[in-house]
Design brief:
Length: about 190
Amino acid sequence: MVKLYTILVRKPLNYEQLLKEQKKMITMFHTKPEEFKIETIIELSKDEFEDFKNNLSVDYEFIEDAEGIFLVKEKGTDNNSGLIVDAQGFPYARYVGIPMQECEIKKCPHCSRCFIEPPALSRKDNKLEICSECGQKEALKLLFEHQKTQGFKKFLEEAQKNANLYNAKIIISVPGSKDIVVESNK
Ligand SMILES: [Zn+2]
């Protein structure tokens, strides 16, 4: 018995389309891969497997003879390079999935979205892996904060210059906060 993870796609025409659909289900519909315990492994020759990958919607004898959910792969390769098939009694690959490592799919700790694209590192600690969408939002937010503080710093520098120039005490009132007092430091 082998344990594999995948998202089954209904009636894909070929491998390319299957891959595209699977990615879409993860990134757009936030589908999480399911765990499958596979008992039957069907091994094909290199050419047979290539042919199967390119023509998933046609009838195959080996599918007609198989029962349950099974794995089809090229002889001598590892299980992850095969395809998980749930024919549901049909002679063709009605539901197919490309096996995924569980770790390929990450769940964003910010928005709970499942994603497979390379993660963005949270700028807050440079460790937390978040989705690229949240990464962008975070970067933008930090940029604004930075601008705000930089802008305010400039403003205070100007105030200090004026305080020194006029030997004055400048009181800046900040809404919702304590007044800021800038005195000549000369
Ligand atoms: Zn996110």
